Amino acid sequence: MRSAGGFYTVQTPQARLLCTLVKRLRRGERRSTNPLSIGHGVMVRRTTDDQGTIEKIAPRRNELARAAPGRAALKHVLVANLDLLLVVSAVRDPAPNPARLDRFLVIAEQTEIPALVVVSKIDLGDPAQAEHLYQPYRAAGYTVLLTSAATGAGVDAVRAVLRDKVSALVGPSGVGKSTLLNAVQPGLRLRAAAVSERTGRGRHTTSVAELIALDAGGYVADTPGLRGIEPYDLDPAMLDQFFPEMCPYLGGCRFAPCTHVHEPGCAVRTAGAIAASRYDSYTKLYEEARENARRRGTPGRGRYV
Ligand code: GDP
Ligand code: ZN
Prior knowledge:
Layout lengths: L1 E3 L2 E5 L4 E6 L1 H4 L15 E5 L4 E7 L5 E6 L2 E10 L3 E7 L7 H13 L4 E6 L6 H13 L4 E3 L8 H8 L3 E5 L6 H8 L6 H9 L8 E6 L5 E4 L44 H5 L4 H21 L9
Parallel strand pairs: 3-5, 8-9, 8-11, 9-10, 11-13
Antiparallel strand pairs: 1-2, 1-12, 2-3, 4-5, 6-7, 12-13
The site of guanosine-5'-diphosphate has 15 residues, from α5.
């Protein structure tokens, strides 16, 4: 439930325990800076009424990670076992940034976390325009929730999707994540993220990460660093699969493998399967992923591990 400076709060069916990790687990995975994050399932030996030792970490379904600050080869796990990622984007203030939104959605696809798009501050714009702008995401199969914490529009829908799930909200600073959550449940605030973002000291803040319980059931992750996640270890050869609207066409390209960038007879491009702005994000991410893979020395591995 909570991770702070080597102490972990674990919720068992019986109690809430403040725990440490047994020594052999402290080093964690080879390529990770933290052995354990919020959201993980663990096995605990209870030592006192309210304390324990974590002796085992259960296999995770998924994890949201970012490159460790200043150590790009290592990852820092932000939260494990997410049921839902809400990618938040404002109608205005800040202006919509489709490239950024697409990056978050690619991360969700890559890490196998179900995602949906939350459009915030619809009171600041023309609803028809917002609908038009986010149509490509509906076409790709994503649920798009139009919301306004100011008018209350869509707040019930957000409350409904959060219910009984472990979720995280991502999106740039100022899009209204904390305000929206506060509308969903008065008093609920994203403290950790807010602090690190406002002071601009995100990378130096000792990270306290927490799952906040929702009254209706479920949890929302409150962890610094969510704003700065970037695709990690993205395999260029798999990127097309992370754009759901491209998937039905992937077998139809003349060349295999097809990058869908320059090859003739590309089914994705001939079919007009993907909106221009989404395709733009694809090509940029493709170039970036290829460059990173080249640097890592694993170009075209064809498999994301
Ligand atoms: P966060 O950084 O994503 O958590 O964003 P905040 O929740 O701190 O909101 C940033 C700013 O946007 C604040 O000044 C909010 O008052 C404002 N804001 C948030 N939601 C809405 C909304 O639905 N409508 C309007 N007009 N402003 C909003
Ligand atoms: Zn193609």
